[in-house]
């Protein structure tokens, strides 16, 4: 049954994308050993892990056997969907310390979390406002600068 689902998914992907194979599949396979060495048995934090790029990266990271995989995103719905996707895969989710945290990465709560958590070996930050047209209005522009610059600087300071 799983093979039939995978085959159907491959057909759908090919129809939508207009190609049979991912542009990244060959590179990922070629670098699989190197990626595994970087991630396996390490503590990994993914910020903005519920979005399109962050969730796809989290799915790949989960297969590389990190010791710890923590995922932060403001959207509780995105995190719930990510957990369903990870647990619904044929192999399930085999990360011993997996957590999702619905936290704004630039908030005082995040600062407290990072202050109390053991250090991470690998931190990936995908949190950003990228679909806001800066010319829309001053409030959208201010929010974009706050999210993409100010909160990021604050977050980086907390990591040290």
Structure description:
The structure is a single chain. The chain is α/β, with parallel strands linked by helices and 160 residues long. Helix content is 53%, strand content 12%. The chain is built from 6 helices and 4 strands. The protein has helices at residues 2-17, 25-39, 52-62, 76-87, 108-116, 138-159; strands at residues 43-47, 68-72, 97-101, 122-125. A 4-stranded parallel sheet has the order 3-2-1-4, with helices on one face. Helix 3 (52-62) links the parallel strand 1 (43-47) and strand 2. Helix 5 (108-116) packs parallel to helix 6 (138-159). The longest helix has 22 residues, at 138-159.
Layout of helices and strands, plus pairs?
Elements: H1 2-17, H2 25-39, E1 43-47, H3 52-62, E2 68-72, H4 76-87, E3 97-101, H5 108-116, E4 122-125, H6 138-159
Parallel strand pairs: 1-2, 1-4, 2-3
Helix pairs in contact: 5-6
Query: What structural class do you assign from the helix and strand content?
Result: alpha/beta
Major sheet: 4 strands, parallel
Based on CA inertia axes, which overall geometry fits?
A: globular
Kindly provide the radius of gyration, computed on alpha-carbon positions and rounded to a whole number of angstroms.
18 Å
- Strands of the widest sheet, in order across it, are 3-2-1-4
Number of helices: 6
Look at the structure and give the mean pLDDT: 89
Q: What share of the residues lie within helices?
A: 40-55%
Total DSSP E strands: 4
End-to-end Cα distance, whole Å, is: 48 Å
Strand content is 5-15%
Low-confidence parts, pLDDT < 50 over ≥5 residues? none
From N to C, what is the helix and strand string?
HHEHEHEHEH
């Amino acid at each position: 049954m799983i093979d039939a689902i995978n085959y159907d998914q491959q057909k759908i992907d090919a129809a939508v994308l207009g190609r049979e194979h991912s542009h990244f599949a060959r590179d990922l396979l070629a670098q699989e050993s190197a990626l595994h060495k970087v991630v396996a048995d390490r503590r990994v934090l993914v910020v903005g892990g519920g979005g399109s790029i962050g969730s796809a990266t989290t799915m790949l990271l989960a297969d590389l056997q990190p010791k710890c995989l923590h995922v932060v995103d403001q959207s509780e719905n995105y995190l719930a969907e990510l957990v369903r996707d990870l647990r619904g895969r044929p192999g399930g989710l085999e990360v011993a310390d997996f957590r999702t945290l619905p936290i704004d990465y630039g908030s005082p709560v995040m600062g407290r979390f990072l202050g109390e958590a053991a250090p991470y070996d690998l931190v990936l930050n995908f949190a950003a406002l990228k679909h806001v047209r800066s010319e829309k209005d001053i409030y959208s522009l201010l929010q974009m600068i706050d999210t993409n610059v100010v909160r990021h600087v604050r977050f980086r300071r907390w990591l040290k």
